Amino acid sequence: MSLVLDFSGKVVAVTGGGRGVGRGVVEAFLDAGAEVEFCGRSEPESLPERAGRTARFCAVDVRDAAQNEAWIADLVQRHGRLDVLVNNVGGSPFGRFEEGSARYFQAVTEINFLSAAVAMRAAFGPLRVTSGSVINITSISARRPSPGTAVYGAAKAALESLTRSLGVEWAPEVRVNAVSSGLVHTESAAGHYGTSTQYEQVARTIPRGRMASPRELGDVCVMLASPLSAHVTGAVLAVDGGGEWPAFLAHTPNADIVRQADRATTNGGATS
To answer: What is the pLDDT of residue 116?
Structure first.
């Protein structure tokens, strides 16, 4: 049987869809034919548009439970349905754990875990009607040490745990999955990782020799929300280009294996 990823007539909600990974998710669902709504604290300079359909923006601070819930309720009322919720909002500044305040810990947890939990609770009823799905964007920081962003990693680990639990609790009516993102080339990536040389050095730590594009994360979200993944729930799918090269390999007789990443990056990165 041939399956086409056609989301015509479907309604998709994305938190934090104005830039970076969220923008890639919005564009991927637009290309699949969906009606897409996204939220954020400030409206982007341009709204994603495909084939006469423009993604609709709503100003929402998802850390505020009342705003978060009202956004979901409003879009469901206007469209009469909800098929997919993508919880993408997240992030954290870099800083030593012992220097963080209790308020800082709370804020990082709110944006990276509690906001998604509130949105999922608000969306459950409408998603149940459409046999829809939730996709949570998490991070490799949830499963490996995250020095400098320890609370962020812990919050994303909590979100992955919630994903697995709700994948069972809400089955068979609503599917709940997560996309665990590795390093992504976003608008701020070069500045975040330092100079262009430092950026390239970081990219070489990825087996595929480059960072992901936001659209690559978006395409995986479309796949997980589609009939191709009809029996997938409670899963955490890593989209990280193979993760990270084990550090010890660089100091063994097999170091040439690691150097393949250098060659891949120098030659423009691995092919898709």
So the answer is: 98
**Looking at 104, 152, 193, 199, which residue is catalytic?**
152
Q: What is the pTM of this model?
A: 0.89
Q: Which of 1-5, 16-20, 81-85, 238-242 has the highest mean pLDDT?
A: 81-85
The verdict on residue 270 lying in a domain is: no
Both structure tokens of 72: 């979901």
| Active-site residue, 152 included | yes
Residue 257 forms part of a structural domain:
no
Q: Give the E-state strand segments of the chain in sequence order.
A: 11-15, 35-40, 49-50, 53-54, 56-59, 84-87, 133-139, 175-181, 236-239
Structural domain of residue 95, as residue ranges?
11-190+209-242
User: Is position 35 within any domain?
Assistant: yes
pLDDT average, residue stretch 72-78: 97
